[in-house]
Write a structure and sequence with these properties.
15 helices, two-stranded antiparallel ribbon, 358 residues, mainly alpha
């Protein structure tokens, strides 16, 4: 916001050195804080809706603070040349900064004219090189090609390996088939109970773990005061390591066997059934059921979303529908991945994962 305020200040000066740059900035941005109310609902994803509401509340509160600060400033000293500063202009400034600023080695956000016209790609054809320290007057920033770039081809940079929530909130676009996309869940014993029942898993009550299980959950920061209960499905790890370890531990009956493994092993999906195939199959089936429950929280089905997109809806509607569609497709990919893993386990396979996927 500090960078956005500086941008807003320069926009009020007709003789600003930065005016040629500012004049080429978009008049509006496609970030969700500017979505019509119906398209905010179309996102159908509570964690993102929470962030949008949080940003909108911040802008409204910050508008009051700015107006209070400027209330008694003489017109000659007015930092915005007497122009009114309101939530819409503050939202424009914040969106301009969030969608175009770079954080380089000094971790200070910078607006870099021309450089910020490069598009995003996880396989970029260029990179940013910073020469000198941030505080040095000779510091320079360059875009260096990583490969031969064809004429008229886009110059691309990697904005970072993030889920689509980040790209839509800060940049106003959605990456299709994003390998880093995730769905957030709240670690909750009652939810796990429901998932295990749906999966046909006979297990101890997830809501009342034994003392030795509580101790391990505390080490995973999923139990006790100050616990961080946000877990995720998807991304490079497929299943959040803390969630996977918790399920394995809660489904295990023998603390001695569990104690033979460190947390890193219990959190890794790459380790083949550290507590045995029976526990592993039950844990993965529970995750399958969690995916199914997460899918049910979306009000539309994949085919409905695809039909809407084929109808060429307005841009904000397209972004909202594409966002929720990518979440669903990611969950389906996770379910297929886990189903393949279950089928490779030596224990007898239940048909529950087929029922869930069906």
């Amino acid at each position: 916001m500090r960078l956005g305020l500086r941008l807003l200040q320069e926009r009020t000066k007709s003789d600003s050195f930065w005016w040629p740059y500012i004049a080429n900035l978009p008049e509006t941005f496609t970030v969700p804080i500017f979505f019509p109310g119906e398209d905010i609902k179309n996102l159908q994803y509570a964690p993102l809706l929470h962030q949008i509401n949080k940003r909108c509340r911040f802008l409204l509160e910050f508008e009051k603070e700015v107006k209070q600060k400027l209330g008694n400033v003489p017109s000659g000293d007015h930092p915005f040349c007497g122009q009114d500063v309101h939530s819409s202009s503050l939202g424009w400034a914040m969106s301009a900064a969030s969608s175009r600023a770079f954080r380089l080695h000094g971790e200070i956000p910078m607006l870099l004219p021309l450089v910020d016209m490069c598009n995003h790609s996880f396989s970029p054809n260029a990179r940013i090189v910073q020469v000198g320290d941030v505080d040095s007057p000779d510091m320079s920033v360059k875009v260096v090609a990583e490969t031969q770039i064809d004429q008229n081809a886009a110059v691309t940079l990697n904005y970072g390996c993030y889920p689509n929530d980040f790209y839509l909130l800060d940049y106003g676009f959605v990456v299709t088939s994003n390998p880093y996309d995730q769905v957030e869940l709240s670690y909750d014993g009652n939810l796990l109970d429901a998932a295990s029942m749906a999966a046909g898993v006979t297990s101890p009550n997830f809501s009342t773990p034994a003392k030795w299980q509580q101790d391990i959950l505390s080490q995973l920061n999923l139990h006790g005061e100050g616990a961080i209960l946000k877990v995720s499905l998807g991304g490079p790890d497929v299943v959040d390591g803390r969630l996977l370890a918790a399920l394995r531990v809660l489904l295990a009956a023998d603390p001695v066997t569990v104690g033979k493994h460190d947390l890193k092993t219990l959190m890794s999906l790459s380790n083949n059934a550290p507590l045995g195939p029976t526990v592993e199959a039950s844990a993965l089936r529970t995750v399958l059921a969690l995916c199914a429950i997460a899918l049910q929280h979306f009000h539309t089905k994949i085919m409905e979303d695809q039909a809407i997109l084929k109808g060429e809806p307005p841009l904000t509607t397209e972004l909202a529908v594409q966002f929720r569609l990518q979440k669903k497709l990611m969950l389906v990919d996770v379910m297929q991945n886990l189903s393949r893993r279950i089928k490779t386990l030596p224990a007898e396979k239940s048909a529950v994962e087929d029922n869930i996927l069906g």
